[in-house]
Every structure is written in C-alpha cells, then in structure tokens.
C-alpha cells in the first residue's frame, strides 16, 4: 500500500472525506453567525446554544409527540427560530446601535441561562435519539466505510449553504436585507419595515444553527452543553473567513474541517488547537480575514 | 455570644480530650459537607442525586446519631481543585463540618483531602477513579470507597483478553486520568499475553470521534479500548456504532462506564459492551429495594457512586454511634475494624491505606431484546473477588502502610 508521510493512502483518503463532512457542518454553523454579524452587526454568542436547542427540541418533540426526523428537520429550526425572534424583539433590539461588546455579553448571558436551565431539567449524560431507519448502515468505499447518514449530512449541509448564499447575494430580498442594514432610515423611507427585517434575519440565522443541531442529533450525544464546545471553534472559522463574509464562512468551514481531519491523523493532540493556530497566522497577515473586506 | 460559646465548648472539649476518659460529639452536631460536581460533566453520576442518597441515609438513621443532630451542607465543586480547597477550608474552619462526602473528580479529591489532613477531619471519597488516592496521595483522613482505576483495569481487560481479544488499540483522553488508565490497561493486557497495536491521545473533551474511530478500525485490532469517560465515551461508542465497528468483528471496551452513560446510550447502541462496576442496582432483593426507594426520590436508578454515598454515610453514622465520637481518627479506626455489610457490599474491608476493598463485577450491556425496560441494562457476567480487584498492599506506596 502506498504511504503518504507514514500514513497509508487509503487511511488518508478516509480522513480527508471525514474532514469534508465535518467541514460542511462547520460551514453551516458559521454561515448563520456570518449572516447575523454581516447584516445586523450582532456578535451572536448564543449561536452554540441555538444549535443545542435544535438538537434538544428534535429529541423532545420525538419523545413527547412522536415527531419523526423529517418533520423535525423543518419544525425544530422553525421553533428555535421563533424563539430567536423573541430574543431579538425583547432583548437585542434594546441595545441596537451600541458597541458590539454589548451584543456579545447579552447573547453570552442568554446562552448560559438556557444551558443552565436545561442542565437542571435533563442532566448532562445526553438524551437518546435513534438514527432514522433509512440511514442505518453504510457503504464500503474501499478505503473506508461511509455511513449513509454522513453522506446525507454533507449533501444537505452544502445545499443549504449554497441556497443561503444565493438568497443573500443574488436575489432582491437579499439586496433589501443588505441595504436595510446599510442605511435603515433610507429603506424605511421606501416603505420597508426594517425592524421586522432585522428580527427575521436574526431568526433565520438562528434557524441555520438549529438546523445543524437537528443534523447532529442522531450522531452526537444530545446534551445541554453540546453547543458550548463547538461555539468557539465556529467563531474562529468565521474570523478566519472574514467576519460577515457569507462565502468566506462556507469555504473556510470546509477547509478547516479538512485541516482538522489531517491533524487528527498526524498529530491528534493538536486537533483542538490547529484551527486557532490558523486563525493567528491569518490575522497576522490579513487582519480582516481571508475573504473579509478591508475596514 | 456565639464566639464565647464556641470558646467555652472547645475548652470543655479539649479538657475532656486531655482527660481522655470520654469521647464525645463536638457541639452536639454531626455536620456533613457534600462536595460534588453539581452542574458539569460528572453531574449525573454523582451530583444532586448523590445529595439525595446522603439525605436518605440520614433519614434512615433517624436524623440523629447518639442524640446529636445530623446536618448537611452542600456545594458545587465545578470540577475545580481551587474551588474544592476553598470550600472545604471554609467548611472545616467556620462551619464545624466533621465529614466530607461525595468527592468526584480525582483532582478535586486530592486537593480536598490535603485540607482534611491538615485539619484532621474525615473524607469519604465516592466518585473518584484515580487509584493514586490511596497510593501516593493517601492520608490518614480519608477512605476511598467505591472503585478505582486499578480495579477497572483488572476487570474488563483481563476478561476480554482471556476470551481471545489479543490485539488492542487504545483511544485515550489526553490528560492525567487518561494516561494513568492507558498505562494500567497496557500492563494488564500484556501480562495476560495480549499486545497493544497502537493508541491515540485525543483532546479532552472531543465531540467528533469519527476520525479516531476510522484510525482504530484501520489498525485491525481485535479490541478498541476507550480510556476516557463521560461524554467522550458515549460519543466514541455512538460513532463506533455508526461506522459498523462491532458488526465488522471488533470489540469495544469501555474502561470507565457508569449506569447513567449506558442509560443515555440505550441498549441498541451499547449492547454487548463489557464494563467493570462496583455495584449494580438489579443484583438482588436488597439492592432492588434500596434502588426503588432511590428512584421514588429522584426519578432515576442509582449509579454505583450514589449507592456508595449512601453506604459510606451509613457506615460513618454507625461508627459515630458505636464510639460516641466524631473525632476522625476514632471513627476511621472503627470503620477499619468493622466490615461493611449492607446493600452495597458484603464483607467490605477498609484497609490501612484507606482503600475500601470489596467485590467488583464484570458486566455486559443487554441487547434490546433482553432488556425489559429503560433501566434494565446489565448482565452481571462475573464477580471479581475483592482480593483480586484492588492493588495489593505489598505494592503500595502509601505512607501509612508498614511493609
């Protein structure tokens, strides 16, 4: 078997594929953050909590009402999205226009609150969510065993990422959004309800996080703390891509998944640090990130 | 006034002590501090339900011991040795706490027992894993009750190697506990004629194990051992199931697995998993009776840690009752002389190094067909006799052991 730096080629290809799968997941999460920051200038530290809520709601809806995976894929993000709109309406709106640090602190507080309440109710061992029957098993690719579910995650995550990018960058609705946050008074003069637009945008960003949460429910332990570990990594991805750059968040997400996967093969101990190392290097040479606009 | 009272009582107490004639219970109260992780990674295996177990013990003892009332204070250690040290110091110096129970993360326990040794109070360690707690970190002021890494590495790996699982690959959480566990397993596997093909040290904590499972799978080892705990273990097992590890003929060995973990995984994912435990709720009528009462209080079945908290507290109250004293050395001496015989252990002996030595059990997780409900999770495969399960005193580095 041919070896690449001491690792068999087949193993390496497997790791690359896993990297792309995880990357698609990072992309989905960082996309929501980028949308919220890019359009609303809110640093959403509650993003991890919203991801966790997406997974928790999926499990709770299944246990209480028997809601299946496919319905949950729409219903859970919608529920969490509505919750997001309420947070925006009752809390974030009050600090609009203030320094970014206020939105960071406020959303961080909200995240801790949600996490604490759910820990008290559900504990930390994790809730069970069975893999939908049609995704059980996988295929042998020769170099690795690819579970069907992971293949599904990569396809659906990339579709949603592309759809969101297209909507914001290429459609009329997207141009309203961008214009509304650029000069809200002018847009209001044109008869567009900017505060509503802001609420809905926040809700949409939150929905993206919750959607990732639903995708995660069958493969990770669903616990109230599952988002807090991931949040900081996703923030690093957004910073590397350039705060607010939609395309940058997607591409960087995938790239970071791959880099992390390779690190796990060659030097696993560094796997949790490698993304931050990349962040440091990128910020040294491009302070506004790889795809960010120069300030 | 209270200051005056305190001075007077302690003066009277010390006068009596000097006299040595009578032992007695200081300030006519037996005060217990419950210190555990109440909100983090180890919450479900000890946490608030452990406090319930302690309160059950107090209620069962009648709320009083030798006429003195029993009181409890509790705190969240947040898995931080610093928080633990300052809490225990405050308890013993300001609140007259006589005994500290719970004690989960090993780092917390080592910090807390140092303070207990300085102030000559007693610690009953129920949740911690590290076997160093009664080895290089032993003190005359604590007892390690439920289990330890030595016992865990004797149990599961020995059984699996003897059943033919000769080649091993280890996934290790990259911190002190994981390294210790990896070393213990390696020793046991090699001593039984098996070999270690490789290991990976993964960051703690890790959510995504797919990359590591893939590497373990590619190693071709008979057994993939998990030298990690809590969410890391459950995530690794879930991922192994997803990647068809067991279907392809490899065995997963969880080295530190609690009932709460298996309950979270469910039998579909965890079936066939072998593990070592100090106690299981469904072993006999006595354990079931107690577990039913526990379940009424908490809504969950007890882990071995919960049962240990109850049992060790009962044993402590019996000691205070019998000696009429809450002095740590008097109580500890009684506990060493009187075996534990209750729903937790039969003929459990506290050794001079503070290790409570009792039978351990090798268990296997039931399949969904075998399991009759959400808490019907284990088949007990084998009893590991007490003298086999724990580190022999002849190998001890504890300062209290005269070899």
In short:
The complex is a heterodimer of chains A (295) and B (403). Chain A has 295 residues and is mainly alpha-helical.
Would you mind describing this structure in some detail?
The complex is a heterodimer of chains A (295) and B (403). Chain A is mainly α and 295 residues long. Chain A has helices at residues 9-40, 47-65, 69-90, 100-122, 148-170, 172-182, 184-189, 194-216, 226-241, 246-266, 274-285, and strands spanning 3-4, 7-8, 138-140, 145-147. Chain A is built from 11 helices and 4 strands, in the order ββααααββααααααα. In chain A, strands 1-2 form a two-stranded antiparallel sheet. In chain A, helix 1 packs antiparallel against helix 8 (194-216), helix 1 crosses helix 9 and helix 9 packs parallel to helix 11 (274-285). With 403 residues, chain B is of the alpha/beta class. Helix content of chain B is 43%, strand content 19%. Chain B contains 14 helices and 15 strands. In chain B, the strands form 4 sheets. A 6-stranded mixed beta sheet of chain B has the order 2-3-1-4-5-6, with helices on both faces. In chain B, strand 9 (223-227), helix 8 and strand 10 form a beta-alpha-beta unit.
């Amino acid at each position: 078997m041919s070896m690449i730096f001491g690792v068999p080629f087949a193993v390496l290809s497997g790791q690359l594929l896993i990297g792309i799968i995880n990357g698609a997941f990072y992309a989905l999460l960082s996309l929501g953050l980028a949308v919220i920051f890019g359009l609303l200038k809110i640093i959403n530290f509650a993003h991890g909590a919203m991801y966790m809520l997406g997974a928790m709601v999926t499990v709770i809806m299944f246990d209480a009402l028997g809601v299946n995976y496919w319905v949950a894929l729409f219903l859970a993000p919608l529920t969490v999205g509505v919750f997001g709109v309420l947070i925006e309406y009752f809390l974030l709106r009050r600090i609009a226009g203030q320094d970014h640090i206020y939105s960071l602190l406020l959303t961080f507080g909200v995240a801790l609150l949600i996490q604490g309440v759910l820990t008290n109710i559900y504990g930390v061992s994790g809730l069970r969510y069975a893999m939908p029957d049609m995704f059980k098993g996988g295929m042998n690719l020769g170099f690795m065993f690819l579970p069907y579910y992971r293949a599904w995650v990569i396809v659906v995550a990339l579709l949603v990422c592309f759809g969101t990018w297209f909507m914001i960058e290429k459609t009329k609705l997207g141009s309203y959004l961008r214009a509304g946050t650029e000069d809200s008074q002018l847009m209001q003069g044109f008869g567009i309800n900017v505060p509503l637009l802001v609420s809905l945008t926040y809700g949409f960003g939150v929905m993206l996080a919750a959607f990732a949460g639903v995708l995660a429910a069958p493969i990770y332990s669903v616990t109230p703390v599952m988002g807090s570990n991931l949040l900081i990594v996703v923030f690093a991805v957004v910073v590397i891509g350039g705060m607010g750059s939609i395309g940058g968040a997607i591409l960087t997400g995938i790239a970071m998944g791959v880099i992390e996967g390779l690190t796990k093969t060659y030097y696993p101990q560094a796997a949790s640090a490698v993304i931050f190392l990349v962040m440091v290097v990128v910020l040294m040479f491009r302070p506004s990130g790889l795809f960010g606009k120069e300030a | 006034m209270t200051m005056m009272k305190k001075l007077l009582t302690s003066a009277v107490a010390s006068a009596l002590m000097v006299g040595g004639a009578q032992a007695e219970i200081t300030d006519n109260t037996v005060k217990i501090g419950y210190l555990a992780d109440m909100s983090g990674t180890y919450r479900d295996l000890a946490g608030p339900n452990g406090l319930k177990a302690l309160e059950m013990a107090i209620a069962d003892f009648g709320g009083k011991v030798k006429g003195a009332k029993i009181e409890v204070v509790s705190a969240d250690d947040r898995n931080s040795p610093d928080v633990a040290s300052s809490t225990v110091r405050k308890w013993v110096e300001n609140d007259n706490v006589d005994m500290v129970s719970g004690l989960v993360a090993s780092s917390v326990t080592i910090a807390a027992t140092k303070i207990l040794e300085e102030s000559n109070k007693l610690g009953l360690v129920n949740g911690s894993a590290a076997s160093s707690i009664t080895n290089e970190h032993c003190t005359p002021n604590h007892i390690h009750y439920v289990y330890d890494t030595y016992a865990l590495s004797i149990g599961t790996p020995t059984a699996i190697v003897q059943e033919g699982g000769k080649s091993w690959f280890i996934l290790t959480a990259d911190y002190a506990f994981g390294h210790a566990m990896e070393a213990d397993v390696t020793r046991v596997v090699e001593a039984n004629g098996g070999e270690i093909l490789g290991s990976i040290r993964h960051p703690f904590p890790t959510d995504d194990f797919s990359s590591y499972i893939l590497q373990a799978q590619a190693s071709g080892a008979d057994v993939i051992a998990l030298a990690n705990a809590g969410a890391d273990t459950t995530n690794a097992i879930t991922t192994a199931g997803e990647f068809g590890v067991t279907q392809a003929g490899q065995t997963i060995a969880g080295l530190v697995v609690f009932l709460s973990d298996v309950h979270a995984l469910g039998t579909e994912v965890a079936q066939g998993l072998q593990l070592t435990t100090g106690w299981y709720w469904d072993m006999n009528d006595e354990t079931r009776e107690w577990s039913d009462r526990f379940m009424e209080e908490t809504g969950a079945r007890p882990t071995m840690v919960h049962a240990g908290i109850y049992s060790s507290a009962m044993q402590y109250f019996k000691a205070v009752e019998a000696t009429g004293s809450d002095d740590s050395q008097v109580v500890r001496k009684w506990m060493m002389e009187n075996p534990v015989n209750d729903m937790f252990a039969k003929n459990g002996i506290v050794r001079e190094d503070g290790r409570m030595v009792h039978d351990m059990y090798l268990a296997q997780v039931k399949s969904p067909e075998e399991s009759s409900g959400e808490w019907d999770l284990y088949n007990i495969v084998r009893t590991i006799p007490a003298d086999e399960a724990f580190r022999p005193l002849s190998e001890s580095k504890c300062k209290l052991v005269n070899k």
